[in-house]
Amino acid sequence: MEESTSDNWNVVCEQIHSRHDGHWTLRFKEDLQDREQLLCVACVIEMAEGNKISIVRKTYTLTCFRNVLVRFPQAVVEVLSMDARVCVHFIVTLLDLLQNFEDSASLDLVIEVLALLTAELKSEQFVCCVLEECQKQLSEKNSMRKSLPVFKLLGKLLLTIPFLAEKLIQEYTMLLEPMRVGLVYPDEAVKASVCYIFCTLYSYPSVAEKLSMYFDERLCKLFVSIMEAAQTKELQVNSLGLLKHLLQFRQFVTVMMGSFGTEEVSKDVQVSWIGHAKLPLVSKKLLLSRDETLQIASVQCMTSILVHSPVQYAPAVVYADIPEFLFERLCSTDEILVWSVYSCLLLLTEEKRFFSKCHTIYGIESLVRSLKETMRVNNVEVQKQGLLLFGEILKRQPIGIKLFMNFTIWHEAIVVLREAMTSCSLEVTTEAANALAAFLRKDHLSVPAQYQELQRLIEVLLMRCADLPVPSMIRSNGSTIKGKESQSVMREQSKKFSRQGQLLLSALEAFLNACRTPEPQEPQRKKHKTERRKDEANLHVHLDLSGILSAARGRYPPDLYHTGCE
Predict the structure, then answer these.
(1) Cα–Cα–Cα angle for 156, 162, 167, nearest 5°?
(2) pLDDT at position 482, please?
């Protein structure tokens, strides 16, 4: 009988332990316990392979072995390394259990033990043993369902043993064919495991190029159909992970996007494209899910497509009405999701249909309110990306199509720009100045024009410029800093000059546009003499503020402006 209780890890089978040498027994003490614990590795192996041992006892034995392996890995490895044949036999025995166990909990335990043991042994011999046995099991005429534990094991091993991916693609390519079959097998658990394996393989650049030849056009199209029909979150997440890797390769993007990958899109393909490019609709479906993990992955996949060629692929995204749902996602508090949406929308601004179909008009309110929330968090990258998007929309919005449909959103945009210009980050302030220059375009002004609001906005920007610190110039003569340290300091100083110069140039452009804002019409001046005086006073203020900017500009080297801040 096995000597064990619920409060110890003793694994010694009395019936067979007497014939095992003492060096197979591990002795150790748990913390705060005086009693010595025993684990006989030989007993574990015999009990694991014994036909008359119940699955319950095997599971308990392996659980104890797993716990010891986690806490005392070096001791276990030393015992098994004494005889390589015994170690190989133990690995093969565990792999056989993958085909004999039925319940998922026991299978997961065996997979965990195999993955831990193989990783701790750190031997190419035992890794090859595992791969050969996996290849043997997958090549047998078993049901694909029986292959699921093997796929799960391979996924865990690829994650824990870095060199395994290279070895698999070079010496064990026969494993790839069962994976291709598993990818189209009806069981979603099998598909998810295979997707995970391919996703892990593609994460190694040296392997990704060699692996691309195994993903042909037919398999790519089937993969999109798999994503379209996916129901379980495991398959959705793993397939999106694989898709992100595949979309790094232009040939896969071309295949998955159908006709949009090879030719210019005409104006009359609003309906015909749907049958050829399912991927945007699949992304849209995941974008509409309530799971932010899926939403992030979906947005990032769309961005990966657009990066290859916004001109070719943006129409498909626009025709699927995805932009309006991207704007909806900006209500999220997840900074990764918001940044990803900003990045995707930024690429869509290169497509005229993005504006002509009024997506910007529908989405500007969501964008402004998102920026307002973004200004409250301490994430400069998200703030910069959001302001960059806002500026591009303001610049590219077609003349004659009014962007701000009500005064409330226009005023909130001013509040956002004012907050951004007082940011501690010079880069955020610069993006805000760029956006302000476009915001002061005639088409974007409220009716009637709110000169006092615009004046306060310009004041904030110019005072921000005036408050810039005077940079300390580094001279080559008499400098105490020499060599590499001097070069490093000068590079940093040059970057600082460049950032400050960019802000000043953006402020100049904004100020120039402010001076071009239309004056009130003559009838209104005659009717409202008081308002006319206020407007004239505003013009004088503008001139005074121009002096502030000139003074700020005079504090920086002239060549900074002549060289484009390089």
Answers:
(1) 95
(2) 53
Q: Residue 25 is inside which H or E element, if any?
A: strand 25-29
Contact 360, 389 (CB under 8 A): no
Residues 40-65 as b or e (16 or more Cβ within 10 Å = b): bbbbbbbbbbeeeeeeeebbebbbbb
Specify the pLDDT at position 400.
84
Which helix or strand (DSSP H or E) is residue 27 part of? strand 25-29
φ, ψ for residue 276, nearest 5 deg: -105, -25
Helix (H, G, I), strand (E, B) or coil at 4: coil
Which residue's entry shows tokens 């302030």? 429
Cβ-proximal residues to 479 (8 Å cutoff; 6+ apart), any chain: 486
End-to-end CA distance of the chain: 80
Between the CA of residue 305 and those of 84, 128, 264, 312, 359, what are the distances in Å? Answer: 50, 38, 15, 10, 20
β-partners of residue 2 are 13
Half-sphere exposure of 264 (CA within 13 A, CB side): 3
**Confidence (pLDDT) at 556:** 46
- Residues 120-156 pLDDT 10s: 998 899 999 999 999 999 988 667 888 999 999 999 9
Given a cut of 50, the residues of the chain with pLDDT beneath it are 1-7, 260-275, 474-479, 523-527, 532, 535-537, 539-549, 551-566
